[in-house]
Amino acid sequence: MEKRIITAAITGALHTPTMSPYLPITPNQIIDEILAVHAAGGAVCHIHVRDPETGRPITDLDIFRRIATTVKSKCDIILCFTTGGPVGASTDERAKTVTAFSPELASFNAGSINFGLFPLLEKYKEWRFDWEPEYIKMTEDFIFSNTFKTLQEFCEFFRNNNTKPELEVYDAGMINNIAFLVQKGYLCKPVYLQFVMGVLGGITPSPENLMFLVDYAKRMIGDFEFSVCVAGRAQFLMCTMALILGGHVRVGLEDNLYLEKGALAKSNAEQVSKIVRIAKELGIEAASPEEARSFLGLKGLDEVGF
To answer: Quick one: which of 32, 77, 166, 223 is 20 to 30 A from 188 by CA?
Structure first.
């Protein structure tokens, strides 16, 4: 059977505690979710951290270290560290996860976009914490900045730490950015692309758009692996299409809080189990962490800094 990498984005920096009681917040909750994802067939977990008391997204290296070292002692799953950080984090703050931990894999956002979460304000009348509506509202006047200068700086951070970039592509122009970085020698092929669909400010999720992104990347870059993640209810539909097109997939509560219409996912592992089942129906098996390392050319757990 064919093999595909299944990633779970555990908690992210977009959803807030009011939106789901199942969103993991504390270090122990995040650790438990990662171990459950591994048991369910996930090969990679994408990690952010939060304030354990309020659930607010933060960049706390001590919490990242606690999670990473504990998980490493219990299983061989690949940890993909965020360099997106909380909404509004500085470039230096965002890069610390690479420079401090030298991970096998980390996110690398491939361009600037308007990043709007503010329509979520209409869905909730009461909030568990005061920071939540302010955090969401701020995105109405927020640009997620990834300039050519900072892209080149991030390339250097990744190269110095032998960390593979997972290149987050929110819209078609970011494929141009990646092709430029490859042409100038900042990135080496084969690159690992992740098409991020459904963020307000980026490309919308549809079969036509996904096929266009894959074809455009073939023409502009040529040699790559790709994965697909989707913000919102089209998650499983588009991930299924990604599997059919030969791609890998990302699920998880960072991107989508639901398992199906009207039913909140009670864990990341529930979503992983669902996409594993869908993949099997298509004649596809979930790759193990070691197989994923081979597909992506990762350095291995023995060379990380945690």
So the answer is: 77
Could you tell me the CATH number of the domain that includes residue 169?
Answer: 3.20.20.70
For the packed helices 235-244 and 268-281, what is the interaxial angle rounded to 10 degrees?
A: 40
Distance CA 105, CA 45 (A): 10
* Segments forming the whole domain that contains residue 71: 2-301
Residue 102 in any domain: the answer is yes
In terms of DSSP H, where are the helices of 75-108? Answer: 91-101
End-to-end Cα spacing for the chain? 34
> Smallest Cα–Cα separation from 44: which of 284, 285, 248, 265?
248
pLDDT of 236 strictly over 80: yes
Q: pTM above 0.90?
A: yes
Q: Which two tokens stand for residue 267?
A: 């864990």
pLDDT in tens, 267-298: 999 999 999 999 999 999 999 999 999 999 99
Domain membership of residue 166 (yes or no) is yes
pLDDT at 88: 79
Both structure tokens of 66: 């606690």
Question: Using alpha carbons only, what angle is made at residue 107 by residues 240 and 206, rounded to the nearest 5 degrees?
Answer: 30
Could you tell me if residue 306 is inside a domain?
no
Residue 87 confidence class, pLDDT cut points 50, 70, 90:
confident
234 within a domain of the structure (yes/no): yes
Token couple for 305: 């800094």
- Determine phi and psi for 182, rounding to 5 degrees: -65, -45
In degrees rounded to 5, what are phi and psi of residue 112? -90, 140
Q: Cα-flanking dihedrals φ and ψ of residue 140, to 5°?
A: -70, -25
Strand partners for 108 = 167
